[in-house]
């Protein structure tokens, strides 16, 4: 994979070696962000309109519920005029600023990055507020005022999508932490907040899962989480299957691929329920998979769960004993059907 990186920051384009890793960028500035990638050798951006809508929605949620997650820290508390929070210009302005920024840097990155065969570009866009500029805002808020207080960053780097279905592409998960605050928004401070969970990551685990009660599984640090669960039917010894994933109301990110999975289940007649999978019912789990906009859909080989949830945060990794749920090294039938449907949507929608 190429190590060439590009950063577009308020009209200025930088390239390697002056560009930090995307995690460094996200830890440096608060704000709402989204990550996606190019598709079909850079021909389009995956589900770009959906990402723009969620990004603008995340910014508005942070503005109204937790401004410190959107704006750079100030010595004094930030105070916003009501018209600023309620401005109808927010959504359209955020989308326009981000789209214009990506349109400027992406063609340059595609032209100059020496990508290998099968390599795409990961695209992370961060919308960060400048509190100092808010103080000069008048009572009447329009698109120009909203644009004035926002800084836009676009980070691009080479990314090779994992090949679905191969044993070496299977995910290995461990449940190690509690759910996020303001989970319905995607914000950069989560990159910093999740770092302490890394000390509890077992060897070979590729994603960390979150739970608030030590039973119901919410999401991963970087992904949404699904299981294919066996349920008893009406007849004797009859079973049927349903896909389960935690509802947004439980505190999970409304992931772009998450919604596409729900849509795929409906279109293919696969029963689906927005219900947080329960570890105590894991014997009914037949398949599991995780989703995000880089990996799209990744089947799960194994899940580890701490034997003692209550004392987890006070223990070192070597002192934790784990229970395990093992799946096959290859994706199951339902997982494969859903993955194929989502990728068909990617080809149609981009």
From TrEMBL:
Pfam families: Aminotran_4
Molecular function terms from GO: catalytic activity
Superkingdom field: Eukaryota
Protein name in UniProt: Aminotransferase class IV
Organism for this UniProt entry: Linum tenue
């Amino acid at each position: 994979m190429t190590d060439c990186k590009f950063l577009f920051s308020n009209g200025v384009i930088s390239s390697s070696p002056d560009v930090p890793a995307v995690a460094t960028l996200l830890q440096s500035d608060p704000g709402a962000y989204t990550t996606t990638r190019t598709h079909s050798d850079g021909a389009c951006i995956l589900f770009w309109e959906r990402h723009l809508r969620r990004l603008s929605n995340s910014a508005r949620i942070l503005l109204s519920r937790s401004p410190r997650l959107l704006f750079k820290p100030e010595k004094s508390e930030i105070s916003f005029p009501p018209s600023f929070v309620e401005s109808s210009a927010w959504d359209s302005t955020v989308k326009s600023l981000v789209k214009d920024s990506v349109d400027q840097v992406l063609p340059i990155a595609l032209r100059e990055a020496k990508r290998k065969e099968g390599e795409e570009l990961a695209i992370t866009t961060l919308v960060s507020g400048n509190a100092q500029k808010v103080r000069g805002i008048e009572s009447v808020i329009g698109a120009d005022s909203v644009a004035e207080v926002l800084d836009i960053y676009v980070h691009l780097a080479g990314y090779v999508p994992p090949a679905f279905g191969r044993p070496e592409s299977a995910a290995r998960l461990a449940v190690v932490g509690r759910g996020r605050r303001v989970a319905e928004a995607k914000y950069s401070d989560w990159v910093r907040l999740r770092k302490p969970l890394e000390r509890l990551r077992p060897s070979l685990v590729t994603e960390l899962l979150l739970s608030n009660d030590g039973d119901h599984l919410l999401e991963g640090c970087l992904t949404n989480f699904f299981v294919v669960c066996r349920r008893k039917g009406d007849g004797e010894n009859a079973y049927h299957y349903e896909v389960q994933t935690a509802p947004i109301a439980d505190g999970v990110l409304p992931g772009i691929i998450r919604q596409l999975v729900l849509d795929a289940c409906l279109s293919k007649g696969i029963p689906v329920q927005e219900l947080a999978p329960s570890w105590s019912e894991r014997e009914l789990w037949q398949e599991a998979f995780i989703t995000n906009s880089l990996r799209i859909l990744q089947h799960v080989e194994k899940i580890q769960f701490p034997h003692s949830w209550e004392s987890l945060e006070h223990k070192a990794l070597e002192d934790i004993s784990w229970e395990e749920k093992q799946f096959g090294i290859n994706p199951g039938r339902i997982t494969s059907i859903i993955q194929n449907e989502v990728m068909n949507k990617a080809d149609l929608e981009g």
